[in-house]
Structure formats: C-alpha cells, structure tokens
Fold this protein.
Amino acid sequence: MVAAISAARRKATVILLEHTDRVGKKILSTGNGKCNYTNKEQGLRYYRGENPAFVLPVFEQFGFEETIAFFKELGIYPKERNGYFYPASEQAAAVLDVLRMELERLGVYIVTECQIKEVKTTKKGFKITTNQENYYADKCIFACGLKAFPKSGSDGSAFSHIKALGHTFADIVPALVQLKAKQTFFKAIAGIRSDISVELYVEGKMISKDRGEVQLTEYGISGIPTFQISRYAAKALKQKKTVKAVLDFVPYMSKEELCQELEKRFLQYGEGKTCEDALVGLFQKKLIPLFLKENQISLKDKAEQLSKKKLHSLAAYCKAFSIDIIDTKGFEQAQVCAGGVKTEELCSETLESQLVSGLYFAGEVIDIDGMCGGYNLQWAWSSGYVAGMHAAQD
Ligand SMILES: Cc1cc2nc3c(=O)[nH]c(=O)nc-3n(C[C@H](O)[C@H](O)[C@H](O)COP(=O)(O)OP(=O)(O)OC[C@H]3O[C@@H](n4cnc5c(N)ncnc54)[C@H](O)[C@@H]3O)c2cc1C
C-alpha cells in the first residue's frame, strides 16, 4: 500500500493486486491491535538478515522522521511510549483506514480476490495473468510478505512467480515466534510471567540474549525476549543444530548475591520453615516445587538443615536454567519470517532487481527482518516508499 501511494504520488497509474478479500489485513493484528508502527530508537542493530546494512540506503531516503511525517499527514497523530510509536487512537484499524483513504484519493485501482497465475516479462514491461484480467505494466513491485501469520494473506503463493523471474531466497523460517521446549515440566509452570534473562546457545555457543518479561507456557517459552532470540533458534533448528535456552530467573542479582540471599533465607531466618517456605517471596509459587525437585531437595525438609553446598547448587540452577529447544510455534504463530529474496540480487538504493529490469521488491519478502518493537513495519513502510518512488521515477 505504501509502495502504491508513493508511486501514485509521482503520477504513476497504479494497480494493486491482492489475493484476499481486502488489503492490509495483517496491520489489524499488529501491536496487539494498537499497531506499533515505528520506534524512535533506530540503527543497524535492530535489523537482521544475511546483510543487515542493506537497509541503510533505504532508511536514508525514507526513515523514522519521514514515516512519522507521512502518517501524520494522513491523520495518524503519533503517541509515544518508551520510544514505541502507536496511533493516538491506539487502534491499528486507523493505520489501515488512512492508507486506504490515501489509495482512494490517489485513484489507485485495487483488485481483491485476484489470483495471480503468471508474471511474465514482455518487451515493454510485464504481463500479469490472473483469474480476473490480464494486466500489463511497465514496472512490477512484489510486496507479498513471506509466510508469517498466513491467515492474513502472506502464504507464500507468490514465491513461484518470483522464482520464475530468476530470483532466489535465503532460507525462510518463522521469526518473532514462541519456542517449544523438550522438558515436560512446563505443563506444571505454565502461566508464569516474570523478569527473566534468556540466552540462546547453538551447538554450545551463545548466539543471542535478551531480558524482559518471559512467559512460561505449557509448550515452552514466549514473550518479547523469546521473540527477540527466536529467529536464531529457528535458523539453527532448520540446520539440525542443537539449540538450548538458558534462563536466569534472578537477573537482578549476581550468583554470589543469590547464594548469600539463600543462605540468609535458609540458614539465618529458616527456623521453623520448610524448604518450600524459605523460597516464598523470591520465586513465583509454581516454580518452587520444580526448583527444589530438580535439585533433589524435598519440599518439606527443614530449611535450616540444608547444606551450603546444596544452596549454592540451587542458586546456580536458578541462574542457569537450561532447556532444550526442539521447535518453534511455526509460521501460523510467527509475527514475521527471517529469510526471503536475497539482497545481493537487488539494488539497495532503489530496491530494483539486478536480474530483471523494472522489477522491484518491498517489505518482508526481502531478506531483512527486524526486532520486535516497530522495526518490521518501519522496514515495510520505508522499503515500500522507496520501491514505489523509484519504480515511478525511473
Ligand atoms: C500478530 C502480528 C503482530 C505484529 N505486530 C507488529 C508491530 O506491532 N510492529 C511491527 O513493526 N511489526 C509487527 N508485525 C509484523 C508486520 O506486520 C509485518 O512485518 C508487515 O506487515 C510486513 O509487511 P509486508 O507488506 O511486507 O507484508 P504483509 O503485511 O504480509 O502483506 C503482504 C500482502 O500481500 C498479499 N499477498 C501475498 N501473496 C499474494 C499473492 N500471491 N497474490 C496477491 N497478493 C498476495 C497478502 O495477502 C498481503 O495483503 C506483526 C505481525 C503479526 C503477524
């Protein structure tokens, strides 16, 4: 939609072909229905892919400031929370509405329920054969997403057309997604949300880490820190590598501090208390039986009788709670995908294909994925605007 707006503002005649019954469905689900449409903190570190620096020339042309101004002009008054931007109305539908209004104002012709059968180059440009009409165009922009959240329309059905034009894809895997663990004890601790630091290890090497509110679920882990590390887990699992997540349930204390705290709780103030009682107020109640059991400590043992050695190994366990990651929750649950059309096949200034003249790409379909926090929509808006602009200008 932003690519169409950008091209139409430069007086191009634009036709938008959408295979579902309406455009922009995914926007409605973003930011828990509030649409976190960008973030004040920008920089290369928030973007991933084979070559994250690919985003730089795009953001130089249409970055954070331009995005805020673009949406403000359309009617979206920005509301900031810790650097995260939402529409003041806190309704994702507003973002979709203003985009649709602008498309209409510019006379962009939208064809919904349009099944694309073939995209072929012609002497003058492209012929797009569909279940409705055949369309002829000087330029063609693919902004079809990848395979995340396919019920919104991004189901990979355009990939065969992109491949037929000669392009290749970096491996597509779910990213910003929940992770499944092998351990069966998750059923007992499901529902817990806590400030936890998570480190991801692939073949024993730490690859990524994050801290924040992790959710323990019956299948494994969820929440923003999980999402942030998930693309690396998904890539490694696809390559059949061993993946572990190490959770620190007490990230606000060093191991030594935790040892001292446990010594106090058990040995100093533990008189008349069981081991279970001694941990109340430090860990969520559901976690206590698990932590004790995994350390071969009986819940009903007298707290003051526990050895220092046992307490230190309990501290070590809570600081490095290791779980085996065996899968992700898949494309259905993923907010975005990693992978996509290889950036080396595209011009980073214009987003035009280096293989087919007049062919452009925008958004998630390109091998760039952002961290959670407004970065994926920022990439979609920026790359859409730049692709539309160059397609119309050139
Ligand atoms: C639940 C959820 C919450 C999210 N929250 C946020 C957030 O708060 N902030 C953020 O930055 N990002 C968020 N994201 C990610 C963000 O929505 C995506 O990165 C972004 O929408 C990608 O835009 P896109 O235009 O490239 O692809 P998409 O939004 O996937 O759009 C692709 C379009 O192409 C159409 N299409 C696909 N194949 C064909 C075909 N063969 N023929 C015709 N049409 C086709 C699809 O139907 C769809 O309309 C969230 C995603 C999800 C799923």
